Amino acid sequence: MLLAGAVLMSSGCAVANSAGGDTGRADGRTLRVVLTQEPPTLEPCEASLTGTGVVVRSNITEPLVERDPTSGELNPLLATTWKQTAPRTWTFDIRSGVTFQNGAPFTAKDAAFSIDRAVNSDLACNVEGYVFGNDDLEVEAVNDGRLTVTTEKPDPILPLRLSFVEIVPRTTDTEAKVRVPVGTGPYAVRSWQAGAAISLDRFDGYWGEAPAFARARYVWRSDASVRAAMIDKGEAEIAVALDPMEAEKDTTVAYPNNETTALRLDGREPPLDDIRVRRAIDSAVDRDGIVDALLGGLAEPAGQLVPPGVVGHSDGIEAPRQDVAEARALVREAEADGVPTDRQITLVARNGMFSGVSETAEALQYQMRQIGLNVRVRMADTATHLQYQLRPLPEDVGPVALLIMHGNQAGDAAFTTSQYLLSDGPQSTFGTETLDRRIAEAGALSGHERQQAFAGLLAEQNESVVQYAHLAHMNGLLGLSPSIRYEPDSATGDELRLTEVRPAEGAKH
User: Fold this and answer.
1) To the nearest 10°, the Cα dihedral for 25, 26, 29, 33?
2) What DSSP letter does each residue of 129-182 carry, written as one string?
3) At what angle do helices 447-460 and 433-443 cross, to 10 degrees?
4) pLDDT digits (tens, 9 = 90+) for 141-167
5) Secondary structure class of 418 (helix, strand, coil)
6) In the prediction, which pLDDT does 222 show?
7) Is residue 500 helix, strand or coil?
8) Within 13 Å, how many C-alpha atoms sit on residue 359's CB side?
9) First vs last Cα of the chain: how many Å apart?
10) Is the per-residue pLDDT at 335 higher than 60?
């Protein structure tokens, strides 16, 4: 996915402490984290981007409410309570006694400003399109301790949406995105050495529980083996996105990272405009083989775009079993009706999307060729892959099967369906009027009815549209030094909360 998929950029590093920034010494007071890439920005309104959120969210800045990634419940943060006070209006009571890292007190006026800046401005924040679409919000600070937010139409999950809006002081620039943010979080930015490292200091004025480590330092290495070596050599306490080959080590831990891989089949061009061909591809995929042989067993075969724990996920939607005979029969049937099944399909995948991505693309190419389709693989850089992923989609490129990785960090299928299943969704190539109507109807529901409606339309996609051949619900692999204790969860890949990291018993800090 665009939001939650990490954008991997090469730093050309060959050894742990080569170019790209020194992590510093193991002093027991500094938490050293090695990422896959330098964050593209630290702008809080871009914190729904994985590369930004992993540093910013809940560390430097905070939202009004916070979703528990395990239970899915919303917990109070900068807002203490919230309720729907009119069909289109929600009212939030603001936490008192909170101070920004610049010394200014936090009030409802700052919350109103932050929402307006992120959602209603011309800054083109990522959170605006992904979380709120084209809808503006009417925001009012009733007084210092109370905020009202009014939507264009009733929105039962507005508090969840607002969990993606990071709160900043009302003195923050509204004409341009900021390089070094100010927030209410437990850490403040000390320095950002471009191309080298980001350093944070513990904010002594933090309203909540103080983090265990006085400092945090982020560096980045594009090579997963280098990141793993930094843990082994005591050069970092946390390393993200390790290769499955490291999974047997005592210094690694696997966790569901809410990412789902899939092939998006562009239904605008033959032969992929024929549902029989799309169904054939879905049947041709050997999900178990890919998971076991290429993903190191660190994934689960998938039959839908959202993983367990997300509203709308259905245990009743099972991953299809490979059936080559059935797939061949569907292709032959389409060919007999004049569908040009010999036309070359380009399978586009992004370099560095996940460990084993190129081998996975080649396996999919082989499996599609097995059933009589003509497929070539194109491994692309991030910029090129985005051209295929987002509207406006490229023209005159022939039929495309795009390997995507979608992460639903919000925990609700509305964020998936609006992007990936609507006929004109930003990351959808086609759809149906029926499915569009069902998506709109599901979005107006809440509770059990919402769950059932989204589960039903995900099943409908598999029956009547088949825009996606789902592959796997992915797991992440985190490297952890024996000197610390941390339990990753499904949010870890998007927001690594430093306050949850503790020294191991007996370690100095």
Assistant:
1) 90
2) IIIITT---EEEEEETTEEEEE-SS--TTHHHHHTT-----TTS-SSS--SS--
3) 160
4) 999 999 999 999 999 999 999 999 999
5) helix
6) 87
7) helix
8) 11
9) 38
10) yes
Could you tell me the maximum CA-CA distance found in the chain, to the nearest angstrom?
A: 73
| Residue 73, domain CATH | 3.90.76.10
**Element housing 329 (H / E):** helix 324-336
Residue 465, judged by CB atoms within 10 A of its CB (0-12, 13-18, 19+), counts as buried
Q: What's the predicted TM-score (pTM) here?
A: 0.85
Question: pLDDT digits over 377-395, tens only?
Answer: 999 998 899 899 989 999 9
Give yes or no: residues 27 and 87 share one domain: no
Tokens 């339309």, located at residue:
457
SS3 content of the chain, % helix, strand, coil (to 5): 30, 25, 50
Cα–Cα distance between 264 and 277 in angstroms, integer? 13
Interatomic CA distance for residues 375 and 344, integer angstroms: 6
80 and 159 both lie in a single domain: yes
Token code pair at residue 483 = 């000197």
Please tell me whether residues 242 and 262 are part of one structural domain. Answer: no
Neighbours of 173 (CB within 10 A): 12
Give the domain range for residue 97.
61-177
Residues 421 and 274 in one domain: yes
Q: pLDDT of 206-265, one tens digit each?
A: 999 999 999 999 999 989 999 999 999 999 999 999 999 899 999 999 998 889 999 999
354's CB contacts (< 8 A; 6+ apart) are: 259, 261, 295, 360, 405, 474
Residue 36, both tokens: 């896959």
Residue type, 306: V
Q: How far from chain centre, in Å, is Cα 304?
A: 16
- Output the CA torsion sign for 323, 329, 332, 333: negative
- Which of 82, 148, 72 lies closest to 115, judged by CA? 148
